[in-house]
Sequence to fold (401 residues):
Amino acid sequence: MRALPLAYVIALGAGLGLASAHYAVAERPWFGRAQIGAWTTWPKSGARDIDPYMRAYLARGVHLPLGAGEGLELVAEQDEGGRGLDARCRYRVSGATPPARGWSLGITDPAARPLALAVERTSFTDAEIVRGERGEMRIVLATTPEAGNWLPLPAGGRFQIRLRLYDAPISSHAGELRPDALPRIARIDCR
Amino acid sequence: MSVADETGVTPAANRPRPRRWLARLGSGLLRFALLTLAGLLLAGIVHIVTVLRVPLLATRDAAAVYAALGMNGHAELVTPPPAGLPAMLDADPNSVAAVCSYDLAAGPLRVVARTGSLPLGLTVHRRGGGIAYAITDRAAIRGVLEFVLMTQEQLDERLANDEEGETARELRVVSPSPHGLVVARVVVRRAFDRGEAEALATGVACGLAD
Fold:
């Protein structure tokens, strides 16, 4: 009869421990993330003192993240109002980017895979966009063509926006970024 | 009339059934709670050990998957990867990357990159995920970015062999693991820059330092 309690403890410990570890590192971990407005980043993902959860996540796939001195990647899954990014809506990404030698802004599916679109345009770099009179950035994400900088969206479904800052001094202390230092993501309207 | 009625004391065997049942339930629940607590403690230990062991047991991380690339002395392009190898996850379509796999058992590795007009970064990715070192072309001297990658033991040996009072004329980088990848990443600022970016990335030389 003593075997039954022992089996219960082992089953609970092993099952819960393995399942929670798998869940914790299956996606980019919650630990070590920094939320800046609509943008999320993991400042330590490219640092030497990376946290164990991020290291385990990186070890589970072919990841080559940007180094802490090399750049910074920010991911947005929601707009500035906290609503999930939906391809049936139009979005305006505008404002400033932190000082960097260059940046790229692109869209992917929720699993970070490239989107298959009829128009071969899933990203812009700082050298490719048309800027306003004051040099500000303004990119419209929509299913149908837009004037200016247009990033086409698929017919429907969720998506992510990825901003990569290259050779940015802020990359080693990204947690100190303020929301107004990053581009705003505003929903224009929805179908 | 029973004995209990006469003395006013109820023997254990004659106690009302619900009270005995409640006592048993109470001790059973306490035992179950203690066992669950032990299970949760064990779960915490299993969780921590698993998370820490994942990088050590990894066989599908970038360093393992691209272990055969760049052994010929020059970085090899992984955007797109050679036939039969998986593509990088989370890759920026506006950058190209080339890798040199290293094994420091044979000795320290010298990495030399020539810079151009496009932003270039070099990173050392250790086996099992994680970056040991990163540098960009801003640190280049006369258009050349160069460092020597070594283990802590190799660094100690090099320091012991340095001439007294003489400054080392090389940038020495310690890799926490003997195996890993040196990654050269170049930003493709415009679509027509891709050819130049690929030439810069694959032009990175990785060879034995001595």
